[in-house]
Structure prediction request, 781 residues.
Amino acid sequence: MNEDKIEEIIGCHGTDKSKLITILQDVQAEYNWLPPDTLRHIAKRLQVPLIDVFGIATFYKSFSLEPRGKHLIRVCLGTACHVRGGPRILETAERILGIKADETTADYEFTVEGVNCLGCCALGPVMVVDKEYYGKLPPTKVEGILRKYGYTSTSSNNGGET
Amino acid sequence: MNRRKIKSLQDLENLRQEILVKRDPQKTRVSICAGTGCLALGARKVITSFKEELKKQGLEDTVEIRETGCPGFCEKGTIVVIYPEGIYYLQVQPGDVPEIVEKTLVEKKIAERLLYTDPVTNEKAIHEDEIPFYKNQMRLLIGDNIKIDPKNIEDYIALGGYSALAKVLSKMSPGEVIEEVKRANLRGRGGGGFPAGRKWETTRNAPGEPKYVIVNCDEGDPGAFMDRALMEGNPHSVIEGLIIGAYAIGSHEGFIYVREEYPLAVENTSIALEQAREYGLLGRDIMGSGFDFDVTIFRGAGAFVSGESSALMSSLEGKVGAPQPKYVHTSVKGLWNKPTNLNNVETWANVPLIINKGADWFTSIGTEGSKGAKIFSLVGKVNNTGLVEVPMGITLREIIYNIGGGVLANKKFKAVQTGGPSGGCIPESFIDTAVDFDELTKLGSMMGSGGMIVMDEDTCMVDVAKYFIDFLVDESCGRCVPCREGLERMSEILTDICEGRGTEGDIELLEELSEVMKDTSMCGLGRTAPNPVLTTIHYFREEYDAHIKEKKCPAHVCKALIEYYIDGEKCTGCLACLKACPEGAISGDKEKVHVITMEKCNRCGICYETCKFDAVIIK
Prediction:
């Protein structure tokens, strides 16, 4: 843990208990996950029981207690995307990267998640890589997109299938 | 930036006139939608291309580019509108930009191929009000989006923005404001439908200081994105409504709770709040009235259930965003146990309209119990997907066919799902039902926040029920037993049915579980969770029977109940499916009929999509 960095984040928001979620969001943005020692540090500084910090870290979906990949792939599984083939986009991404939803490739390049609606419903099915949106997406285009983010057949867990 | 603070109604009017004088109405303006939908379709590149092309042609000073909010017709993005003529170009790609600049901006001609073309008559439409998708709507709120750069408060003020606030602060008492909103019978647009005026009054009269006001932009219903478009595209309309409400309630501190999946809404709202402060529209002594009020923006951290009012308030306090038992309403004891008034984005945005045009005007629109207009997110298997704003009381048929242009690819309409996971699926026999808070509830569904997902013959209704239950299993806070355990059991039963293990009595068990959950769950999530199951059983029981008794999925969706075959008469032996199959389940040689090995097939359907000769069939 880089204590200075955590202190800098706490410094931006103060130590009021109501700032806990906001502070964790910034830590998540900094590290891509919530390292356990940072949680202990924050609990002490905000004088919140550690169990409550973990309660929040596990309740909200944007937090991760395990390291995530460099690129976060979110496949929308909202209703509109569901009826237009969203689950098949997720399956395709899973198959290409050789991991299941909520898992990360062995080289920590990619994490895949199915999410419950990204609010781009008119363009379903939708996939978001980091901050880039891809709408009206056929399964056949998924691999090409992943390649733009550095996917090669060797970056996946299973040696990759094309 | 140091700006002149607005100190009175007259000050605001003077500023508006100054802005209008500064702006030549005849100046050519290119409005480009920069909402999340169009950005997903490449709007950023279109904007860059326009800037480059204008520079190339030496037109930077004579043509203004405005990056606007979402006008709603997402299906046809990127949307570009040329003013003052109002020429409406659809599906604009970066490559189309030189043609638009050359033809329309220089030669003042129309690029016909980029206009809306009626799919039946082939007629072209030049202006917004000629396009069927728009002309059948009543665009009271969302209509301004294409005219406004949400990052520039002057655009909102130029259209008369903040005049309702000025009117309230200079001419109306808090009691009069509440009375007006009550008379308008503005009901909560987030789905609850509770009269906003009454809620405001309760909060105002509740003992305890301070009082808080909250904008709920934790829009979690899958398939709905109205609030995103308003918050991103016209944040000042929501902020103005919020300030008016705060004045009426006697609150000096407000919060805007935005879900983290909407980064652009957070960005635009933050800018809007800052600009409002600069002009003295937020902060101390607003418009010289002596009224103090300010707003903090809060990013949600991703939890559907946190959109419920008491849960959202817990989340704002920095706690787990789970619903609390409501022995006392949040309007009496809410955030930090103080009286708190929470309304949805669209509810707040309606307030300035009501103040400016009056409750009588507002109540002249809509039905007996539901007044005004409502924005719906029309999505799924429909031709014109996007956001539609219509008067309450319009029928489902009018929305889906007159505005939505009917079902995608001429397939047969099966159902429309409204109300998100708390709502239900409405079959074709009720397509002439008027859409309002009360009518859809009578059908076992609800209007909800405005999601409207069209389903066609290729949608399996058992799969849809399973989809919603699985969604809720994921999103239930787990606090009360009926919701936590009931949903898990329902998911197991529905999974069994979809995977061919359904047995006689499953439907009755689902119904029994549903009744218990409705009666005994703690919050709205659990109490309404059975709706998708009950409506699909009620209206589409034969599909459940087919799954359970015949082990067949009539819509060919449930993987365990379907098999893929290649029609030997249609197969040309082109090798396309063979190469595409990720499992290596297809064998055959060039120009010879291919065969699928069932043991290897994982029913991913890629062969079905790849085949250009319709030779892959599902049984």
The first strand of chain A starts at residue 71 and ends at 76. Chain A has two domains: 3-59, 71-148.
